[in-house]
């Protein structure tokens, strides 16, 4: 199971993005500034848009899914409970998991965006996809929910998971680190080695590296362990 | 056509011409082919086919009930093409300039701003609808008739909430009514010529030729 980007070029007016590389099974994190083309690349990788030039090969992927930044785009149920059912999950269990049981009969559009995102992510992450593209999965979530989402993402053992984010505070445990910089997608490699060349590294990681304490990965536990290392 | 005033007048003239008669619709269609400059862009618009389908349905009903369905279909299709041309030519902020030029700094400004905001919302709704359809397909949410209502609900709710936020933001920033703007338009000779051609089409269509010339019968 893999996705290969072969000299992919996406161009719009004066803006362009080039990307090459192979995404194998595991969790990939793609960071980049706002407006760098993360969502555009996410759509191209998920097969929703065509690149201007180049080729994308998807081997062994028959069940893809993309989670858009705004969760309301995914809504198909008229109640929160129905929305859970539309993802083929048990509403009672799911709503208990995301602490929304008392809102089961409400319209999903009556939920705050944070609540809806929480519900949407829990539903998406409860499924088994060959390819899961998450576009800004942590936006609208508070710290506790980000932590919960990171744990769920880190727990994915099958398929290719690609996270597009400009998040700087919380991350799941990832296998490969990529970033969009200067109009190109760069593969920084596997962790922890990739952290040394990560341009978008959060300040805490930069500080740890400066002090010679390289975290094993990006999760809170890894960063805490590195920070407490003597 | 860069001048929105001429574009609106031209669209109005062409719509009237197409509405009057089948011959007028044919002239307007010729105008659309030769003068609009947006034929390929308009033909790529995804709304054209569904609208054509809807018109075909009503035309068929009209034909079955004794009316001239074919004429109705052709004339309405030409009007739809002209509408699509106006939509394709539209640029952000134009209605504001038009409103102030037409009705002044208070009413004109407000109506112009309203029209511009409506167009902006329309663009966003089209973009959102695309995303929603993709999400529904990936979710295997079922046939279009089952998913159209939730999609519509999301679109309307988002548009209302966006309008609410914009209104609050404007109030917070001290907006009360009206505003100052120096309307600017860029008129080319080509715009004037195309508008005049549209006027000629309306004259030819609306005035019976036999009133002026003694024709052989």
What would a concise description of this structure say?
Chain A is an alpha/beta fold.
Q: Can you summarize the main beta sheet of chain A?
A: 6 strands, mixed
Number of helices of chain A: 7
**What multimeric state do the chains show?**
heterodimer
Poorly predicted regions of chain A: none
CATH architecture of chain A: 3-Layer(aba) Sandwich
Main attributes of the structure:
heterodimer; A: 230 residues; alpha/beta; Rossmann fold; 6-stranded mixed sheet; 27% strand; B: 217 residues; mainly alpha; 77% helix; flat
Give a topology summary.
The complex is a heterodimer of chains A (230) and B (217).
Chain A: E1 2-12, E2 15-24, E3 26-32, H1 38-45, E4 53-59, E5 64-67, H2 80-86, H3 91-97, H4 113-125, E6 131-135, H5 143-154, E7 160-165, E8 176-181, E9 184-190, H6 203-210, H7 220-228
Parallel strand pairs in A: 3-7, 3-8, 5-6, 6-7
Antiparallel strand pairs in A: 1-2, 1-4, 8-9
Helix pairs in contact in A: 2-3, 4-5
Chain B: H1 4-20, H2 22-35, H3 39-43, H4 48-64, H5 69-89, H6 94-139, H7 144-172, H8 189-206
Helix pairs in contact in B: 1-2, 1-5, 1-8, 2-5, 2-8, 4-5, 6-7
Written overview of the protein:
The complex is a heterodimer of chains A (230) and B (217). Chain A has 230 residues and is of the alpha/beta class. Chain A contains seven helices and nine strands, in the order E-E-E-H-E-E-H-H-H-E-H-E-E-E-H-H. Chain A has a single domain, classed as Rossmann fold (3-Layer(aba) Sandwich), CATH 3.40.50.300. In chain A, the strands form two sheets. A six-stranded mixed beta sheet of chain A has the order 5-6-7-3-8-9, sandwiched between helices. Chain A has a three-stranded antiparallel beta sheet with strand order 2-1-4, with helices on one face. The longest helix of chain A is centred in the middle third of the chain and has 13 residues. The mean pLDDT of chain B is 88. Chain B starts with a helix and ends in an 11-residue tail after the last helix. The radius of gyration of chain B is 21 Å and the shape is flat. Chain B is 77% helix and 0% strand. Chain B is an all-alpha fold and 217 residues long. The chains are: A alpha/beta (230), B mainly alpha (217). Chains A and B meet through strand 5 of A and helix 6 and helix 7 of B.
């Amino acid at each position: 199971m893999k996705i290969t980007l072969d000299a992919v070029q996406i161009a719009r007016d004066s803006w362009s993005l080039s990307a090459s590389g192979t995404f194998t099974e595991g969790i990939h994190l793609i960071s980049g500034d706002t407006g760098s083309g993360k969502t555009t690349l996410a759509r191209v990788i998920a097969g929703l848009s065509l690149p201007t030039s180049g080729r994308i090969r998807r081997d062994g992927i028959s069940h893809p899914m993309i989670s858009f930044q705004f969760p309301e785009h995914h809504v198909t149920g008229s109640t929160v409970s129905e929305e859970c059912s539309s993802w083929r999950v048990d509403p009672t269990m799911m709503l208990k998991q995301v602490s929304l049981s008392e809102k089961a009969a409400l319209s999903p559009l009556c939920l705050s965006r944070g609540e809806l995102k929480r519900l949407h992510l829990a539903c998406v992450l409860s499924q088994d996809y060959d390819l899961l593209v998450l576009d800004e999965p942590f936006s609208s979530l508070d710290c506790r929910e980000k932590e919960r989402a990171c744990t769920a993402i880190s727990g994915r053992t099958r398929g290719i998971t690609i996270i597009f984010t400009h998040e700087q505070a919380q991350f799941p445990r990832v296998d490969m680190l990529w970033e969009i910089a200067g109009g190109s997608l760069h593969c920084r490699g596997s962790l922890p080695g990739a952290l040394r060349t990560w341009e978008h590294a959060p300040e805490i990681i930069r500080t740890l590296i400066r002090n010679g304490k390289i975290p094993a990965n990006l999760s809170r536990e890894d960063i805490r362990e590195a920070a407490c290392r003597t | 056509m860069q001048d929105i005033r001429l574009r609106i007048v031209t669209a109005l003239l062409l719509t009237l011409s197409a509405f009057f008669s089948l011959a007028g619709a044919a002239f307007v269609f010729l105008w659309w082919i030769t003068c609009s400059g947006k034929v390929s862009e308009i033909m790529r618009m995804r709304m054209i086919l569904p609208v054509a389908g809807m018109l075909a349905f009503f035309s068929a009903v009209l034909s079955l009930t004794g009316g001239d369905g074919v004429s109705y279909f052709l004339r309405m299709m030409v009007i739809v093409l002209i509408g699509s041309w106006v939509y394709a030519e539209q640029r952000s902020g134009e209605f504001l300039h038009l409103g102030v030029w037409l009705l002044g700094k208070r009413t004109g400004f407000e109506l112009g701003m309203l029209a511009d905001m409506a167009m902006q919302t329309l663009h966003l709704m089209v973009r959102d609808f695309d995303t929603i359809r993709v999400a529904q397909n990936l979710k295997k949410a079922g046939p279009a008739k089952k998913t159209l209502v939730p999609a519509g609900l999301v679109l309307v709710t988002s548009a209302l909430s966006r309008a609410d936020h914009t209104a609050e933001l404007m109030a917070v920033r001290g907006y009360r009514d009206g505003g100052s703007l120096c309307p600017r338009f860029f008129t080319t000779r080509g715009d004037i010529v195309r508008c005049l051609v549209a006027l000629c089409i309306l004259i030819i269509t609306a005035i019976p030729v036999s009133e002026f010339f003694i024709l052989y019968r």
